[in-house]
Specification:
Order of helices and strands: EHEHHEHHEHEHEEHEHEHEHEEHHH
Distance between the termini: 15 Å
Largest sheet: 6 strands, parallel
Mean pLDDT: 91
Number of domains: 2
Number of helices: 14
Structural class: alpha/beta
CATH architecture of the largest domain: 3-Layer(aba) Sandwich
CATH class of the largest domain: Alpha Beta
């Protein structure tokens, strides 16, 4: 099978979506498929919706199927139909996150709803990373109008042969509770909430490590740095920037609790990664974290923006290290039941063959 993958920018970029794309490429190649990656340069959204890319000039038309990372939807939502009609190549949209459901002003959400709805109408099939994304797609287009689709969840086995603990860590109550945040430092992921919760807690009973890109929302990053100073947390918070796989694995191994209170996380590969290392997680009820974290068993789910509950949970887990260990053990067991990337890749490959079949007949 000859597969094309259309993305914005560099597939080596550090984010959960690009990680999914890279793992998919690896899975397809291991099955003997030929994969070609086509990269479009980033455009401002307002420019992209009017300046559509001519896919016949971008994509090798000897493909059997073209996968489009849904992030490119603004650049192709009006050119897709012409491409499919002229080439006969089926197009599958790969959805990591519908931007229409992100935390942004109403006028922009309305524009995104229009363009993402229009985009869904142009593809032959959808690959979605969670049931949450599936429900968002149905909300956008109407359940009866959905194209053929597949929910193929991301995996968390991203660290090769790292040592995975057999049991979760039991830490002494006298030691500070080590919190970990892994993700791009952007407002929707809620780092500011963690800082304000820490400010309400006993001094020096908690530390926080922040690992992730710092270049996506520079103004927000600057506000975070200033907040750390204003709340007198400089000795408790460490910002590492993005980390490669090996140093990130060491970070996971050396911490006790994962905290990422996102306003909207379509799925959240990092929650599964944390479970691999025996870390329970605190996330929110918004988005796909509910499909990974069992509230009260492998971590906790709080309402978006609920600093009070976050503070209480951190205080409880600091005081009750036996509870923390039990949650970590449950998290490890949940990880062992989770699909691996090979499982997800095979699901997608079978789905692509179904999209190709009508063309072959």
């Amino acid at each position: 099978m000859r597969v094309g993958i259309l993305i914005y920018g560099d597939i080596a970029s550090q984010s959960g979506g690009y990680l999914y794309d890279r793992q998919l490429v690896n899975c397809l190649q291991q099955q003997g498929d030929t994969v070609e990656i086509f990269s479009l340069p980033f455009q401002p959204y307002s420019k992209a919706i009017f300046n559509q890319y001519d896919l016949n000039k971008v994509v090798n038309t000897k493909l059997d199927v073209l996968i489009q990372d849904e992030l490119v939807h603004a650049s192709v939502y009006r050119s897709n139909q012409q491409f499919i009609r002229q080439t006969g190549i089926p197009v599958a949209g790969l959805v990591h996150l519908f931007s229409a459901y992100a935390d942004q002003p109403l006028h922009r959400r309305l524009l995104l709803r229009y363009t993402e709805r229009a985009y869904i109408n142009t593809v032959n099939g959808l690959i979605l990373n969670s049931n949450n994304s599936l429900q968002q797609a149905k909300s956008l287009i109407g359940g009866n109008n959905m194209p053929p689709h597949l929910v193929a969840v991301p995996a968390g086995n991203n660290f090769g042969n790292v040592q995975i603990p057999e049991t979760a860590k039991l830490t002494s109550k006298s030691a500070p509770l080590k919190l970990l945040y892994v993700g791009n430092v952007i407002r929707q992921k809620g780092l500011h909430l963690i800082l304000h919760a820490m400010q309400r807690l006993p001094k020096n009973r908690f530390t926080l490590t922040v690992a992730g890109r710092l270049d996506m929302e520079p103004d927000y990053v600057n506000r975070i740095r200033q907040t750390i100073v204003d709340l007198n947390l400089c000795d408790q918070v460490k910002i590492t920037g993005p980390l490669d796989r090996e140093p990130l694995a060491i970070i996971y191994q050396s911490h006790h609790l994962f905290v990422l209170p996102s306003v909207n996380e379509a799925y959240g590969i990092v929650y599964v990664e944390a479970q691999q290392f025996g870390l329970p997680a605190i996330a929110t009820t918004a988005g796909g974290a509910r499909e990974i974290i069992s509230d009260g068993e492998t971590g906790y789910l709080i309402k978006p923006g609920d600093i009070t509950t976050l503070t209480k949970l951190l205080n409880t887990l600091n005081d009750d290290r036996q509870l923390l260990q039990a949650l970590g053990t449950n998290a490890l067991n949940a990880y062992r039941q989770h699909p691996a990337w090979d499982d997800t890749g095979k699901q997608i490959r079978n789905f692509l063959h179904q999209l190709i079949s009508p063309r072959e007949n």
